[in-house]
């Protein structure tokens, strides 16, 4: 027998549908495309200071339940109708979760929450949810984690994120250069903003790298670079960085690097010391900075779901409480609405001060 030197650790290989086949199966119509393009343009205007609203990326830590995700989207649309003159609300629709060791990796990787890993069905769930969000008039945001799966759904996103664990990855930086949506780069887990600033510059440049085509074939693409990268402050393992002094230092670092002195702040993770119930207090501090006239802060991120807290996955979907996170704990719906109203009031107060 020949000596085996390949696939030694491969137990199974299952085909995925070609990206184009899934797009044809679940297509975006012209109305959805126009909505996503308009939402991206509005996001760019906020990031660039042409629109004085706040960008607020708000929603579940991760999507595990399509039904509650779409109920959340419908509720968010109603709030957006009321607060849209002050806030651009973009729903957090995260399908992939980076894990420090092990755990549930997200709807794309394990849609049944049972360890079976039907990734093809997970990708279908992702497209269905994003298409329905667009039909509801709700812009969607997600973290770009895997290097292959974006071909199946990324054209439906209004905003993307590169997380603290991948912000130093050359592969994620060059992938971000190809994405059509604005991309936020989070500071590293140690709190350093330098890696994120470097990533913004790298993603803005042209790149040439291998990927898969919509037909599933290996190919090389050349990108023009993504000019809409920006910094997201998410705190660090040793403390938060949402306060005015931290914002000032971060925006000065952006300016020194030749970038606009504007950023987004994540109210969760290190900024809440991993305590979901502290998110409203973080948002209140940010609202006060905005109300006082700060234009350095152009957006926020909030982890929120229909029901506050979190729950463990024990027997797949059996026994799960509807509308409650299975990953990071989230604030509940009522608390979310109160935070959004406070942020809208802060924008209005800043406007009043500017016109006085």
From TrEMBL:
**Upper lineage:** Bacteria, Pseudomonadati, Pseudomonadota, Betaproteobacteria, Burkholderiales
InterPro entries listed in its UniProt record: Aldolase_TIM (IPR013785), DAHP1/KDSA (IPR006218), DAHP_synth_1 (IPR006219)
Reaction(s) catalysed by this chain's protein: D-erythrose 4-phosphate + phosphoenolpyruvate + H2O = 7-phospho-2-dehydro-3-deoxy-D-arabino-heptonate + phosphate
The protein, known as: Phospho-2-dehydro-3-deoxyheptonate aldolase
Q: Does the keyword Transferase apply?
A: yes
Known function: Stereospecific condensation of phosphoenolpyruvate (PEP) and D-erythrose-4-phosphate (E4P) giving rise to 3-deoxy-D-arabino-heptulosonate-7-phosphate (DAHP).
Family statement? Belongs to the class-I DAHP synthase family.
Q: Which enzyme class?
A: transferase
In Pfam terms, one family for this protein is DAHP_synth_1
Q: Which organism is it from?
A: Polaromonas jejuensis
Q: Which UniProt keywords apply?
A: Amino-acid biosynthesis, Aromatic amino acid biosynthesis, Transferase
Q: Name one GO molecular function term.
A: 3-deoxy-7-phosphoheptulonate synthase activity
The EC number of this protein is 2.5.1.54
User: Does the record bear Transferase in its keywords?
Assistant: yes
State the pathway, as annotated in the record: Metabolic intermediate biosynthesis; chorismate biosynthesis; chorismate from D-erythrose 4-phosphate and phosphoenolpyruvate: step 1/7
- All residue ranges annotated as the DAHP synthetase I/KDSA domain in the record: 44-340
């Amino acid at each position: 027998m020949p000596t085996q030197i390949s696939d030694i650790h491969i137990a199974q290989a299952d085909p995925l549908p070609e990206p184009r086949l899934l797009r044809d199966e679940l297509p975006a119509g012209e109305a959805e495309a126009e909505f996503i393009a308009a939402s991206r343009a509005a996001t760019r205007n906020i990031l660039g200071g042409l629109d004085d609203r706040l960008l607020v990326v708000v929603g579940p830590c991760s999507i595990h339940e399509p039904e509650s995700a779409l109920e959340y989207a419908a509720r968010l649309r109603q709030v957006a109708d009321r607060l849209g003159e002050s806030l651009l609300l973009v729903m957090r629709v995260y399908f992939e979760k980076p894990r420090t060791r092990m755990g549930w990796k997200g709807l794309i990787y394990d849609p049944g929450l049972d360890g079976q890993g039907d990734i093809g069905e997970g990708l279908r769930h992702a497209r269905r949810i994003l298409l329905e969000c667009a039909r509801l008039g709700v812009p969607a945001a997600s973290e770009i984690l895997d290097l292959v799966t974006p071909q199946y759904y990324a054209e439906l996103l209004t905003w993307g994120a590169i997380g603290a664990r991948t912000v130093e990855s050359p592969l994620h930086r060059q992938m971000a250069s190809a994405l059509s949506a604005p991309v936020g780069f989070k500071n590293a887990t140690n709190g350093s903003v330098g890696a994120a600033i470097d990533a913004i510059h790298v993603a803005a440049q042209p790149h040439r790298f291998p990927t898969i085509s919509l037909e599933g074939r290996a190919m090389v693409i050349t990108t023009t670079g993504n000019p809409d990268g920006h910094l997201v402050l998410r705190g660090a393992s040793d403390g938060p960085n949402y306060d005015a002094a931290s914002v000032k230092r971060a925006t000065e670092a952006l300016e020194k690097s030749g970038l606009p002195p504007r950023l987004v702040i994540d109210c969760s993770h290190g900024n809440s010391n991993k305590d979901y119930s502290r998110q409203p207090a973080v948002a209140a501090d940010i609202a006060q900075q905005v109300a006082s006239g700060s234009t350095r802060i152009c957006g926020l991120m909030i982890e929120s779901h229909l029901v506050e807290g979190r729950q463990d996955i024990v027997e797949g979907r059996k026994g799960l409480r509807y509308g409650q996170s299975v990953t990071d704990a989230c604030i509940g719906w009522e608390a979310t609405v109160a935070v959004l109203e406070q942020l809208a009031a802060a924008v209005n107060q800043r406007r009043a001060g500017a016109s006085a």
